[in-house]
Amino acid sequence: MAQSPFRRMTTPGGYQMSVAMTNCGERGWITDHTGYRYDPVDPRTGVPWPAMPPAFRDLARRAAEQGGFTGFAPDACLVNRYEPGTRLSLHQDKDELDYAAPIVSVSLGLPATFLFGGMARSDKPRRFRLVHGDVVVWGGASRLAYHGVAPLADGEHALLGRQRINLTFRKVL
Ligand code: MD3
Ligand code: FE
Q: Is the pTM of this model over 0.95?
């Protein structure tokens, strides 16, 4: 966070996201007026994203293994910061090359309502509460499901204060 600070990025449609983001690993997810992509360099600083800490990589690999995906080797970790009122609208994660690899998410801080939809945006999403310490493995049929996060309710978390941090581990190369 010190090397590559959180920032609110702009979508290709010209909207500023309410969620603030940063990355670590060989690639980081970014969006700007030209589109979405994974880039080795932080456009804010002009230097590569910070390395993925081995403890992060190992946690993601062990979680994927428990979910039935052996040998998960993430090369990107997107870090999302939610403050009260911020949300992530329904979307699919389609910017990775290999949909056979799962995505592993780690929730920290305030609880959130995760929206888990179907293969069409119009499918009514199911709601799941994600709390501090939850780790979820999204693979197979779920990998391309629409999903999002409902507006974050205000609160105070003992370790993280008035925010939720979510890590998503991805294999993008
Ligand atoms: C289900 N993040 O960064 S993590 C994202 O809580 C994203 O910040 C949410 O959606 C968050 O793209 C949800 C859980 C997650 C991540 C990727 C998925 C669920 C997924 C990809 C496919 C299906
Ligand atoms: Fe997503």
A: yes
Spatial neighbors of 150 by CB under 8 A, at least 6 apart, are 87, 112, 113, 114, 115, 127
The reported pLDDT for the residue numbered 123 is 98
- Give yes or no for residue 147 CB within 6 A of ligand 1: yes
Q: How far, in Å, is the centroid of ligand 2 from the Cα of 125?
A: 14
Which of 13, 6, 51 shows the shortest CA–CA distance to 31? 13
Hey, where are the domains in the chain? 20-170
Q: Retrieve residue 132's tokens.
A: 């501090």
Cα distance between residue 10 and residue 84, in whole Å: 20
Beta strands in 71-163 (DSSP E): 76-82, 88-91, 103-109, 112-116, 126-130, 135-138, 147-149
Pair 26, 75: CB distance under 8 Å: yes
Q: Which two tokens stand for residue 124?
A: 């009514």
Sequence-ordered alpha helix ranges (H) in the chain? 54-66
CATH architecture entry for 20-170:
Sandwich (2.60)
Find the ligand nearest to 136 CA.
1
pLDDT at 21: 99
Task: Give nearest CA residue, ligand 1 atom 11.
Answer: 166
